[in-house]
Amino acid sequence: KAGVTQTPRYLIKTRGQQVTLSCSPISGHRSVSWYQQTPGQGLQFLFEYFSETQRNKGNFPGRFSGRQFSNSRSEMNVSTLELGDSALYLCASSLANKGEAFFGQGTRLTVV
Amino acid sequence: AQTVTQSQPEMSVQEAETVTLSCTYDTSESDYYLFWYKQPPSRQMILVIRQEAYKQQNATENRFSVNFQKAAKSFSLKISDSQLGDAAMYFCAYKETSGSRLTFGEGTQLTVNP
Fold it and tell me: B93 φ, ψ to 5°?
């Protein structure tokens, strides 16, 4: 069974640009969550999608948005990039409410 | 809001020895999940062990076991017979029974010395 796949693995963007990150969950998993990981703030929850609906949202500005498609694949978008958006973005999938989340390898975003 | 605290930023252990990583959490819920995740230098988050709050029995996975003290809101991870491959950042995480949102602690960097 394939794991969670995140693309791209690495990205370098310029301040003011926008970026889209993709996450394909484990087959059969309908819940996808996104996290931002930085040395200073640790792991912070961005949002969670279930059956194409945003079910929960963390404390991030509106520049951060996401969506989920009917095949459960999810994308997150960051507009008007700032230097502080440089981070590892992790996607996790899980079987609805049940237990553990499985993570992808992350997308390393660098904003210059 | 739920919070998770890992008070040990760094720990070290000799190969083949035992080490315990600490985690405390705060919640008003009676049922929830707790997890330990491992993040090696590759940055891949790997599930180590899970505990369901309504289960009194401590979870065990091979060399990994937990000491779950619900009243004290404590959830420590014991690694027995430590191996070089256990070196990583370890995160304690909390999840409510509804939804998939995880709340993570700050992490503990574990070094295994040969």
Answer: -140, 150
For the segment B60-92, what is each residue's pLDDT rounded down to a tens digit? 999 999 999 999 999 999 999 999 999 999 999
Q: Annotate A13-70 with three-state secondary structure.
A: ECCCCCEEEEEECCCCCCEEEEEEEECCCEEEEEEEEECCEEEEECCCCCCEEEEECC
| Cβ contacts of B106 on chain A, cutoff 8 Å | 42
- Best mutation target among B4, B45, B50, B94 (most A Cβ atoms within 10 Å) is B45
The partner residue sitting opposite A42, judged by closest CB among B42, B46, B107, is B107
**In this structure, what token pair is assigned to residue B88?**
């990583």
Q: Which residues pair with A12 in a beta bridge?
A: A110
d(CA B4, CA B23): 7
What are the φ and ψ backbone dihedral angles of B11, each rounded to 5 degrees? -140, 155
pLDDT digits 0-9 by tens, A4-60: 999 999 999 999 999 999 999 999 999 999 999 999 899 999 999 999 999 999 999
Nearest to residue B102, comparing CAs of A36, A28, A21, A51? A36
In this structure, the strands spanning A98-103 and A87-95 are: antiparallel
